[in-house]
Amino acid sequence: MSSNLAVGLVTSAVAVGLVSACGSSSSTTATSPASGPTSSMSSGAPPHSPGPRSTAPSTPHATEFSPPGDIPDSAVYVDHVAPGSHVHLTVPEGWAQVTKGGVTTYTDKYNSISIQVLPLAHPPTPSSVRAHEVPQLSRTVTSFHLQGITRVTRQHGSAVHVVYGLDSAPNPVTNKVVRDVAERFDFWHAGQEAVLTLTGPSNADNVDPWQTVSDSLQWK
What we know:
The chain is α+β, with helices and mostly antiparallel strands. Helices cover 26% and strands 34% of the residues. The chain contains four helices and ten strands; from the N terminus they run ααβββββαββββαβ. The strands form two sheets. The protein has a seven-stranded antiparallel beta sheet. A three-stranded antiparallel beta sheet has the order 1-2-10. A hairpin with a 5-residue loop joins β1 and β2. The radius of gyration is 41 Å and the shape is globular. The termini are far apart. Mean pLDDT is 80; it is low at 1-52 and 54-67.
């Protein structure tokens, strides 16, 4: 074999070896655990899996559901006097008090108690209340719905009892309204009418508290 032929064979062998080495290095990089899809498994970290799709509404207060309105049995009742009168009534202690336009209102969360004393020559009757006061309520009360008019007896006298549905003022946060029920008692004594209105959510059970308040009204 000539020297030129031997040099050519050696050169070819070296070239083939370099090509094989380059091909092997490229393949290792492509399947390296550091860059492959199983890198978290190789490092010991748990694979990422998306959690369940959230079903919460985008607006937490989109709907107003039956707000709590029960007056607690532990409520303590204290005596109040309707401004400018001799009409006394008991109201749960701690309720906020506001007087405006001759009407004094006591409020706590969803419930309210209002009292107004007016001159009235003759005692009210269910017929007179239906004829004169119900039309006024229908004009001034939001979504007014009459449920009944009866005469009832309370501890210190009788009254005309009017029950009606209405919408509450909009919630300042959600702008939603609650369906309320009002119980209005028209008491009368010596030429004066005391209008007592007890208002709370329609789902609330305030039978006993409203009985306590309406039983307490009297002239002293």
